[in-house]
Amino acid sequence: MPLNGTFLTTSCIFGGVYLSFLTPDLILSYLMATPFLTVLLLWISICSVQLKLRKQYTDKRVSG
C-alpha cells in the first residue's frame, strides 16, 4: 500500500475541508475555476501543436 501517497492525499483533503469551513464561497469559486483553466491550457497546447506541425504534414503529403 502506498502510504506516502495515501497520507499526502488525506492531508490535502483535510486541508481543503478546513479551508472550505473558513471561506466557503472563495474555495468554491477556486474549485470551479481550476478545471476550466486546466481544460483551457490543454486546448491551447493542442491548437498550438496543430498549427506548428501543419506545415510539416502538408510538406510530407505533397512530396510523398
Fold and architecture overview:
The protein has 64 residues and is an all-alpha fold. It contains two helices and no strands. The protein has helices at residues 3-22, 24-63. α1 (3-22) crosses α2 (24-63). It starts with a helix and ends with a helix. 0% of the residues are buried. The model has no long low-confidence stretch (mean pLDDT 85).
Quaternary structure = single chain
Structural class of the helix and strand makeup? mainly alpha
Dominant shape: elongated
Mean pLDDT, as a whole number?
A: 85
Short characterization:
With 64 residues, the protein is mostly helical. The chain has helices spanning 3-22, 24-63. The radius of gyration is 21 Å and the shape is elongated.
Question: Which terms summarize this structure?
Answer:
64 residues; mainly alpha; 2 helices; 94% helix; elongated
